[in-house]
User: What shape does this take?
Amino acid sequence: MATNASAICKFSDGSVVYMRNDITLDAATELLSDASGLVNQAGGLSLGQIAQGRLLTHCGIKIQSDGATTGSFSYSALVGIGGDLIGLVQGGGTNAQGLPALKRPVRMMTGIKLNVFAQTVAVGVQIATVAVYTRSGKVDVFQGTVVDATDVSMTSVISGSTLGEALVNQNVLCYYATYPATNGLADTGVADGVNALYVESATGQLKSMMYITKGTGDIMTQFVDETFSIVQNDTLTARGNV
Assistant: This one.
C-alpha cells in the first residue's frame, strides 16, 4: 500500500507551491514539486529550486495512504545546502487542517530540500520523534525505535549524537513529539513504561517530560512552548511497552 505526502508552501509574496510525491515509510524522503500536471507549476523540483529567492513563511504537511487513513506524520524539516536542518514544518494525517506559520521564515535557494518522515499507525513499538527549536535558532530532530520495557536513548537524525552532545549549551524554545502506535506509548499498565518522552541530566534529574501525538489529528502537529537548558551528557529517553 503506497503512501504519499503533500505540502502547501506559502511565501511572503503571496505565491504558493504544491509539493507531492510517494514517500518511503520509516525514512526521511524529500518532497518534490507536484508533477501530476493537475496544477500549473513545474514538476519534480526541490523546494529551493522551484522557489529560488522567495521567503517561505507558511507550510503544512499531509500524509495520505492509498485506500486507508493509517499514514501518520512524524516530522518534516527544511534541509540546508550543507545538510544541516534549518527549519521545522508541522504536519498531520489524512484529516489534518491548517497552514501553520514557520517559527522562523526561511529564504529559499537552490540546494534547500523539504524532507518528510512518516509511519503507519499500528499496534506495536515504532519510532518516537522529537523536533526541537532552540533560542539561538539551531534546529534538530531526535528519534529512537522504542523497545518494549527498555530505556531507548533518542539521537539526532543528522549527527547520531545524543541530546546533550548535539545541543550542548543550547536553550530549548519549543518542540513537537510524535509516536504513531495505535494504543499509545505505554499501554500495558504502569509497571514498565513511561507515557511521555523525557529529558534527564547526567545525575538523573528530570528536566522535561514530553507528551506525544500520533501525528494523525484534525489539526497539524502543534509546537509545545517550553524552555530549558541543555548541557553535556543530558539525555532524551523513550520507554514504552506494548
Observations:
- The mean pLDDT is 96.
- The CA atoms of residues 51 and 140 lie 24 Å apart.
- DSSP finds two helices and 17 strands in the chain.
- The first strand starts at residue 3 and ends at 11.
